Amino acid sequence: MNKKMKYLALVISIMSFFPASSWAQEPVVEQNVTVFKEKNRYAGWPANHGIWSWGNEIVVGFSLGHHDDGLEYKFHPFKGPSTQRMARSLDGGETWVVEKPSFLDENEKEKEATASPGNIDFTQPGFAFKFRNGSGGFYYSYDRCKTWKGPFTIPLFGRKGLLARTDYIINSKHDMLVFLTSQKDNGKEGWPFCARTQDGGKTWQFQGWIGEQLPLDRKTYAIMPSTVRLENGSLLTMIRRSGFIPGKRAAWLEGFLSPDEGKSWYMLKKPNIDTSSGNPASMITLQDVRIVITYGVRGAPCSMRAQISEDQGQTWGKEIILRNDNPYNRDFGYPRTIQRPDGKIVTVYYYKDTSSKERYISATIWDPGKRKE
Length: 373
Description:
Layout: H1 3-15, E1 28-36, E2 41-44, E3 51-54, E4 57-67, E5 78-89, E6 97-99, E7 128-131, E8 138-141, E9 149-152, E10 168-170, E11 176-183, E12 189-197, E13 205-209, E14 221-229, E15 235-244, E16 249-258, E17 266-274, E18 282-285, E19 291-297, E20 303-309, E21 320-323, E22 333-339, E23 345-351, E24 360-367
Antiparallel strand pairs: 1-24, 2-4, 3-4, 4-5, 5-6, 7-8, 8-9, 10-11, 11-12, 12-13, 14-15, 15-16, 16-17, 18-19, 19-20, 20-21, 22-23, 23-24
C-alpha cells in the first residue's frame, strides 16, 4: 500500500469514530414537507395562529378558506367562508394530520369571551396558550391542543382595540409575559407592547410600549412581535415594520431589547431585515442557546430565509436560504418555527409554487449546524 492509500485509510479510520453529523458546521436544508394542501382551497398565515411542541409532537394553526380564481392576480386570492384548522405531527414534522380546533362549534364559530377565573397553571406539561385571531381574547389547553378552554377576555389597556397574535414567555406557574399589538390612536394598526399576568390569567398589567407610536398621517405600522428571553434575563423581540425609507415605501424586521421585563425597550441597529412586501419573523432559542430567526422575503427572487446569532443577538450570521422554488409569487411566508429534540429545526409557513394555484401549508426541516467554539 503506497503512502497516499495509507493516508486515506487513516482518515477513513478516524472518521469512523465520529458520526457524520458531528462534522457538520454549516446549516443544511434537509427536506420540504406538505402539511396541508387541498384542491381549490387557500390555506395560510401560520404566524397568525401559533405553534407548540412537546418532543416530536408539533401542533400548528392556520387559516383555511377557498381559492378565488377571479382574484388570482391579486395579492391574496382568498374567499370565504374562512375558518381555522390545526395540523398535528407526531414524528417531528415528517407527516401531519389536520384537526378542527375544539373551540369551534358545528358552524365553525367561536363563542363569546367570558372573564377568566385565573389560576391557570402555565407549567403543566401539556400546556398551550393561544390568542384569538384579531382580538384580545385567549384560550389555553392542558392536553397538547386537543381541547381548549375559553375564550377568556383580556383588557384593552385603554386602547381602541387589540391585534393579537400568539407570543408569550412563561416565567413561573402563574406568571407569564405576553406580547401584543394595539391599534394606534387613529384606529389603524399598529403599536406593539408587553403585558403580564401574575395570577394565572385573571388580571393583566400593562408593562411597556415596544418603540414609539408611528406617525398617524401615513400608512405605517409596527406589529406581530416574536420574542425570546436571553441568557442574561433580557428580552429580545423582532417586530414587523412598514413605512418609508426615505420617501420610498418599505417593509422590514426591526429588533428591540428590554432589560426590565418588558417595561422599557431599546431599538437595535441589527438585525434590520428587508422583507420587501412584508412578513413577520419567528424567533426561537436553540438548545445550544444560539438564536434563530426565520422569515419570508416577498421580493423577487422570493424565498424563505433564516439567520442565526451566536452571541445572543449582538451580531447575526449570513442569510440562510431555506426555500426559493417560488421566485415570483409574493403570497407566502408567515412562518412559525420550533426545534426538535434531535436538534433539527421545523419551520412551517404557507406557500405557493408553480405546481398549482393553491396556497398551502408547508414545512422545511433543516439542520442549523453547530455553534462555533
